[in-house]
Amino acid sequence: MTEDKDDSKFAQRCSFCGKPTSQVKRLFSGHESSICNECVELCSDLLHSSPDYDELEEITELSPPAEIKQFLDEYVIGQEMAKKTVSVAVYNHYKRVNHQLRLRMSGKVTRKSEDIELEKSNILLMGQTGTGKTLIARSLAKFLKVPFTIADATVLTEAGYVGEDVENILVRLYQAADYNQQLTERGIIYIDELDKLSRKDGNPSITRDVSGEGVQQGLLKILEGTIANIPPKGGRKHPEQAFVPINTENILFICGGAFDGLEKIVARRIGRKTVGFGSDSIHVDTDSSDIFEHVTPGDLIEYGLIPELVGRLPVSTALHSLDEDALLSILTRPKNALTKQYARLMEFDGVELRFEPDALKAAVKLAMKRKTGARALRSIFEKALLETMYLIPSSSEITEVIITEKTFTEGEEPIMITKAKSKKAG
Predict the structure, then answer these.
(1) Distance of alpha carbon 296 from alpha carbon 304, whole angstroms
(2) CB contact at 8 A, 250 and 184
(3) Residue 122 · residue 315 · CB < 8 Å
(4) Residue 101: its pLDDT value, please?
(5) CB 396 within 8 A of CB 349
(6) Whole-Å CA distances, 355 to 316, 338, 414
(7) What is the 3 state secondary structure string of the chain?
(8) How far does the chain reach from its first CA to its final CA, in angstroms?
(9) How far is CA 120 from CA 93, 97, 208, 315, in A?
(10) By the 8 A CB rule, do 292 and 127 touch?
């Protein structure tokens, strides 16, 4: 009799929220449990609001390294070795992702796959500002059609400090993937200015380092592959919030930095300005960016990166400083060349934009003086074309704009051709 009474009491109360029959409209009883109408409605809302994603498919059209580099050639001028290195690393990375996906979908793990564990090839790009590090990473994501985000290492701090938590990088990638967990786990993250996290003396710190060694340790966890619980819509974590588990094992990390001063470490290690012996020795100019080609993991550790982080960036390549010819090509050759961008912007207002050859050469000379590579070109163009872009939308008479050398060197207005001049010339 006692068991019957206990069972009766148990059946008259919702097993999920604990409310009795008197506090709900209806109670549905099942095997040793009950659920009220309110909990049913809540579960229904959760099912409808949660994204319904199909099973993630492998990348069936994974292009070989030669095709990946060919695509990079359309956007990045020069840097041949860097583009080849990155193309091979990316191809191997997503080939590994496909292999793991096929194993998971088949439900079988062969003895061969148990013997050989394929590690991912995170990439380190070394080169001065404006040499194309970010552009390479962005172009790769565009070609592969995978989510992509950029993080600035200088704003990252250890968890618990004021600043941006390392895991927030994953939140931004999750947002870029349109909140698709599976797509997030095969995306690309570019971490810029990694060199700014280096320890100044290259020795382990005995105190807490908010913006340096501590952040390197935080990055190490997500680079090597871990499951991080992130807030679904970004923002700060709080105990009552449901988290989204993101496995970083198949996320490709590309890190970049200028590494100012690293060339001195390499030169000191080399000692003499030659590498090798006898007639096969190679001359090394310690004042040139080419010296980055001789960087070893030991040099990066001496620079101030922790050994574990260096080990998680097995693929490294150097980007060379851009000369005048390269900068001139950047202005005209790539699909997204600056001259093409500004021409399209003015085309929206019905105006044709042309550049005299000497004008582009003048812009390049100004960029070379600033020593910030291709990044200087946009600011130079913006300043030179500001007045023109301010006037054109208000004037329907202007049909053509010709940028001259003095537009850049002396700030003179470009040549404006109006409808009246065009008719007169005709």
Answers:
(1) 13
(2) no
(3) yes
(4) 78
(5) no
(6) 38, 11, 10
(7) CHHHHHHHHHHCECCCCCCEHHHCCCEEEECCEEEEHHHHHHHHHHHHHCCCCCCCCCCCCCCCHHHHHHHHHCCCCCCHHHHHHHHHHHHHHHHHHHHHHHHHHHCCCCHHHHHCCCCCCCEEEECCCCCCHHHHHHHHHHHHCCCEEEEEHHHEECCCCCCEECCHHHHHHHHHCCCCHHHHCCCEEEEECHHHHCCCCCCCCCCCCCCCHHHHHHHHHHHHCCEEEECCCCCCCCCCCCCEEEEHHHCEEEEEECCCCHHHHHHHHHCCCEECCHHHCEECCCCCHHHHHHCCHHHHHHHCCCHHHHHCCCEEEECCCCCHHHHHHHHHCCCCCHHHHHHHHHHCCCCEEEECHHHHHHHHHHHHHHCCCCHHHHHHHHHHHHHHHHHHHHCCCEEEEEECHHHHHCCCCCEEEEHHHHHHHC
(8) 109
(9) 6, 9, 30, 10
(10) yes
Are 326 and 77 spatial neighbours (Cβ–Cβ below 8 Å)? Answer: yes
- pTM given for the model: 0.73
**pLDDT tens digit string along 297-330?**
999 999 999 999 999 999 999 998 888 999 999 9
CA separation for the pair 250, 261 (Å, rounded) = 33
359 phi/psi in degrees, rounded to 5: -65, -45
The per-residue pLDDT for 27 is 86
Q: Of 408, 294, 299, nearest to 356 (Cα)? A: 408
Give the largest CA-CA distance in the chain. Answer: 110
Give the Cα separation of 96 and 99 in Å (integer).
5
